[in-house]
Amino acid sequence: MDDQTFSMRSMALKVYSPSLLYSIGLGAVTPVIAISARDRGASIATAALIVTLVGVGSLVSNVPAALLTNKVGERTAMVAAAGWAAAGLALGLFHSELPLFAVGVTMLGMAGAVFNLARQSYLAEAVPVAYRARAMSTLGGVMRMGVFAGPFMATVAMGWWGITGAYWVGVAAMLLALVVCFAIPELPSRSGERGSARPEAPTISMWGMARKNRRVLCGVGLGVVCIAAVRSSRQIVLPLWGESLGLDAGTIALVYGLSGALDMLIFYPAGKVMDLKGRVWIAVPCLVIMAIAMSLLPLTTGIGMFTAVAMLLGFGNGIGSGIVLTLGVDYSPVHDRARFLGVWRLMADAGAMGGPILLSGMLAVATLGIGIWSIAAVSVLGAVLFGYFIPRSGLKRIGAP
After folding, report:
1. What is the CATH number of the domain that holds 241?
2. Where is the Major facilitator superfamily (MFS) profile domain (predicted)?
C-alpha cells in the first residue's frame, strides 16, 4: 500500500479495534487482581507478588512470542493470544486455589507479549513509512483508552455479579478481540509465504539478532529501557506522594484520572510531529518533561501543586505515546522483523520492571523524595541517549537492512 492509497481509517478494523477490546479486558481486571488474590488467602506481600506476574509473564514470553509470530503470522498469533488471555482470565471466574489463579495471571502476561508484538509487527508491514509514527502513536493512544475505560465497565459489572463481574468483562472483551482478529486480512507478504517458490530469508537466533544489532540496542535500546522505567514508576510515585500529602484515596484517584485523561488526548499530534519532523523531536521532550515533573513532585505541598505536576507528567508521557513502538519498527530489519521486535520488547519490559525495583531500593535506604528524584535522573539519562543516538530525520530508514 502506497502513501496515496493509504488511510488511517483502514487500520480501524485491522488493528485498532482488536487492540481496544484487548486493552479493555486488561484494564477491567488489573485493579482487582490483588483483591482476588487476597480473597484466595494471599497475604498483602503475596498479593503484590501475584500482580507482578503479569509483567513476569510478558518478560519471559517476548522471545517465544517472536518465534511464534514468525512461524504462524501476525493474524494467527493475535487470535491465539486473545484466546490464551481469555483462558487465563476464566480462572478468575471461579474460586480456584491461589496457585491456579497465579497461573492465570501469568497467562495474561504471556498473552500480552504475543498480542502486542504481533499487532506491532502487523502495523509495521501494513503502514507506509510516512504514516508510521502516527499509526504507532494511535495504537498507543487506543491502548490507553482501553485501559482507562476497562475499570469503569468492570465497576458496572461488579455491581451485578461482585468481583467476578470484572473477569466476565475481561473474558468477553478478549473473546470479542479474538473474533475481530479473524476478520483481519492476512498481510500480502504472509500470503506469499504459503507458496514454496518464495526464497526464505536466512534464519538467525535471538542472541544472533541481538549481537547483530548491538550498537542500536546499546544506544537507542538503553533509552527505551529508561523511558519504560520512568513510565512504570510514574504509576507508583503519584499515589505514594499524594498519600504523603495527606490526600484521601478518592482525591488521589481523581488526580490520577485527570493525568491519564490528558495522556490520552495528545497521541495523534505527537505522532504527526514524529512523521513530519523526526522521532527525536518527541522522544527527547517526552523524557525531559517527565524529568522536570518528577523533579518537582517532591516539592509539592498541596493539592493544587500536586495536580499541576501530575498533569505535566501526564502531558510528557502522552506526547511519547507510541515512541517505543515507532523506534522499534524504525530499527527493525525488513526480514525477520518479529525476532528483532522480540528483543526490543524484552528490553522495554526489563525497564518497566527495573523502574519500580530501583524506586523500592531507594525507598529502603532513603526518603520517598530521593526515590522520586532517582527516577527523574533516569529520565534525564534517557533524554541524553535519545538525543545523541536518534537521527534527526524521521522518514529515512534507520534500521539494519
Report:
1. 1.20.1250.20
2. 11-394
